[in-house]
Backbone:
């Protein structure tokens, strides 16, 4: 059974997710820890729960979702996965991070491993990779059918949607991603977002003012 824990990090109030299984293997999703204090919070949780980080999974590569990427890779010696269309966005963070006050940000020395459509697993737990561009060109979501949960990054929020006024954003494409990829899931599917509280597919189809089901 998949266990999940969220930590809200950095000035953008981004949700960093830790997914783990019964054998203590763990995935760090969208590490947004931006300073030593936040890095310690993440490390303490992993240590106290005797978790073994296996990889970092990235839904997309906006600055708030990757501030802790290099830290995680160096500390635990793990690979990271991203959609190929997000590689330019990740490289761009190093250029504009100082303008947001993150003068110590650095890119990982290792190349990210490519995720397209298909599946990715944490041991026996299989996640379907959904390509859901619109907020960013290579945005993906991770759907765990066995527990009816999806980690949707910044595509769909509780009664809101991801912004599309950033470089690479496309409102029409985002709406299409939500309707064709997310709203086709079962209504009881829990949506874990990159910001804010959890929601469900059924709730958003009924109440989301931007994209109704």
Residues:
């Amino acid at each position: 059974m998949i266990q999940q824990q969220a930590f809200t990090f950095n000035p953008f109030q981004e949700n960093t997710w830790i997914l783990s299984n019964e054998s203590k293997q763990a995935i760090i999703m969208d590490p947004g820890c931006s300073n030593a204090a936040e890095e310690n919070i993440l490390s303490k949780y992993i240590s106290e729960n005797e978790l073994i980080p296996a990889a970092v999974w990235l839904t997309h590569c906006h600055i708030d979702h990757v501030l802790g990427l290099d830290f995680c890779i160096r500390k635990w010696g793990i690979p990271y996965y991203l959609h190929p269309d997000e590689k330019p966005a990740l490289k761009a963070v190093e250029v504009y991070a100082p303008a947001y006050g993150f003068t110590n940000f650095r890119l990982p020395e290792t190349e990210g491993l490519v995720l397209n459509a298909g599946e990715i697993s944490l041991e026996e737990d299989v996640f379907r990779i959904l390509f859901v561009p619109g907020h960013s060109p290579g945005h993906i979501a991770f759907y765990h059918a066995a527990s009816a949960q999806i980690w949707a990054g910044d595509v769909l929020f509780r009664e809101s949607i991801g912004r599309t006024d950033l470089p690479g954003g496309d409102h029409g494409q985002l709406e299409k991603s939500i309707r064709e990829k997310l709203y086709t899931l079962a209504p009881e599917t829990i949506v874990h977002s990159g910001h804010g509280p959890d929601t469900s597919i059924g709730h958003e189809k009924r109440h989301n003012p931007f994209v109704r089901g």
Notes: Helices lie at 36-48, 63-66, 69-76, 87-96, 171-182, 201-207.
